[in-house]
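Re: the request from the purification team.
They wanted to know what the chain is likely to look like in 3D before they choose a buffer screen. I agreed to run a prediction and write the result into the notebook, where they can find it.
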Amino acid sequence: MGEIVINWHITQKCNYKCYYCFAKYENEISNEVCCSKSDTELLLKRVFTFFVDKYKTQNIRLNIVGGEPTLSKNIDFIIQKAYHIGFRVSIITNGSKISKSFLETNTRFISLFAFSIDSIDSETNKLIGRSQNNRTIKDWEILNLIENIRSLNKHVNIKINTVVNKNNYREYMGDFINTIHPNKWKIFQALPINSDEIYCTNEQFNIFLKNHKNTIITPYKEHNEDMINSYIMIDPYGRFYQNTHYIHSYSKSILEIPIKKAFDSISFNIDKFKKRYINEKN
């Protein structure tokens, strides 16, 4: 059995405003779970116990996602509590708010750092919404961050996530990827959620893939259909959720009902899940 990955989107807060952002939820509950340390610990314990029992493995990874997860005031607590409960811990970040203190405090507990990098061109990033006060993160800043992370934890894996869209599909990122030499590069087709708008056509996606077929690391690609009903995801309010037919569907909160009942209530494609997490290992 390979590693089982639980994606907890701990917060909707983000300093960027990407127009195709996946992290948009129905706010049925007023407060995000991560605002409470006691609720966070309870959720993490229930999730870990449930999936260890369900899949008969201790290889459970908590993938901490946002929004931008480093904006949570309790991010250090979440990382370290998850680690001590027994999770392997990973995080997906845009990198713009990561401080030296954050790295020195948390890198030892993290097995995988994933950076969300959709473009290395400032003007393209501004069109996408990946800017704050008209400032975008630069490629050299990402390179410096990764160098620091590797110096603090020689066992850490580095991953780059890139979402292909109508603004970046002709951009060449191969030299940047080759310089980083990440353990993995994952390329997604921008997915519409609660929208009829097409953010990236199949043709545009294939153009981007073709332009990067000769990078030193073979990218793993995900078309829109690959992402439907195939991730284990928890929203900021403690609900399992899925993107079903390009809209989010939700369970009741894990903190309010038995976790098995919550998990069983969402649509889930076990074959897609096995392909990603058990064979491909995310």
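For the purification team: The chain has a mean pLDDT of 92.
Please add any questions underneath this entry.
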